Amino acid sequence: MNERINAAGAILRRADVDLRSRRLPEQWSPVEYGCHLRDMLLVQRERVLAALRVDRPDCTPMGRDKRAVHDGYADQDPADVARQLADAATMFGNVLSRMSAGDWNRTVIYHFPETAERSLRWLAVHTLHEAQHHLDDIRRQL
């Protein structure tokens, strides 16, 4: 995952491209995608921590579109987002690295793509998939 996060961070530190403008109204800008990726990693970390404390916690949807407005994704400094993204990935990785063999089978109630009981193993793989997907979203905006 670190190579994906490092690649996204490198893009967000570029001064030679417009990172704030949306290429299409329905697509986020690179900095908005970076903010979403950062927040997704932090939310996933909290979901893992909850599953390690209680049985089958409910993963409340993160409200991605409302979060983008409420947190002012478009107005955030891309270099700050790059640093925060690296921190979020480190924090998520730290939690995963401390899990025991049995912890990977603990479950959460996850609401995407449909509501289902999911293992922490699935959550980790899904998070990696989402990180790659959002890195691709950022690259497409350049």
TrEMBL record:
Domain of life, source organism: Bacteria
Coiled-coil positions: none
UniProt xrefs under Pfam families: DinB_2 (PF12867)
Span of domain DinB-like: 18-136
Protein name, as recorded: DinB-like domain-containing protein
Lineage: Bacteria, Bacillati, Actinomycetota, Actinomycetes, Mycobacteriales
